[in-house]
Amino acid sequence: MDKTKKIIADSETLIIFGIIVLVTVIIASLIGKYLQRILKRKSEDQNIDSTSFVFLKHIIIATIYFFGLGWALLTLPISENFAHSLFAGAGASTLILGFASQQILSNIMSGAFLIIKKPFKINDIIEIQGNRGRVIELDLHDITIEDEKKDKILIPNSMISNGIIRNVNKNLKEKINTQ
């Protein structure tokens, strides 16, 4: 009888875990679509720079996933032995993850600085290390530009922050203003 109760309790826990994960994904998806619709409407109506808004949208969605998945993990029963094993391996895991995520963190920090400094915005025509195109998306990891052949080029943010950026739009605006 005890085994049956344990199996039922474990099944209920896994169902609750699955429901929380599913609800988290649905909420993040709905909020992402809602924010995208607001962005499209505002940029069409008021000609607003959408670069900062896109970055904020990614931060909000990442936060929803972080809290939702954290909450889901709290529902799982973790045995004491498992917890000790987990903490024992945490040091090695941290070291491995630190080396593995160095480039990712570099791209994220570079993306944050690009949002703050704003050397370009969405729909600007830029040139970075021989790649020239219109900026169509800027997120935490990279930017996407579209060249004149309509090819999409993904450029990591760390490459942008360490390279030379030529903003053709700013040059055109300066030429128009001086004439």
Characterization of the model:
The protein is an alpha+beta fold. It folds into two domains: 2-77; 106-178, SH3 type barrels (Roll). The protein has helices at 2-46, 51-74, 80-100, 102-117, 157-161, 168-178, and strands spanning 125-128, 131-138, 142-146, 152-156, 165-167. It has a five-stranded antiparallel β-sheet. Strand 1 (125-128) and strand 2 form a beta hairpin. Keywords: Membrane, Transmembrane, Transmembrane helix. The chain crosses the membrane at residues 14-35, 55-76. Pfam families: MS_channel_2nd (PF00924).
Task: Label this structure with key terms.
14% strand; alpha+beta; elongated; SH3 type barrels; single chain; 5 strands
Q: How many separate domains make up the residues?
A: 2
Biggest sheet details: 5 strands, antiparallel
Strand content: 5-15%
The oligomeric status of these chains comes to: single chain
Tally of contiguous helical segments:
6
First and last CA, distance: 88 Å
- What series of H and E elements makes up the topology? HHHHEEEEHEH
Shape: elongated
Keywords: Membrane, Transmembrane, Transmembrane helix
Transmembrane segments: 14-35, 55-76
Family: Belongs to the MscS (TC 1.A.23) family.
Organism: Salmonirosea aquatica
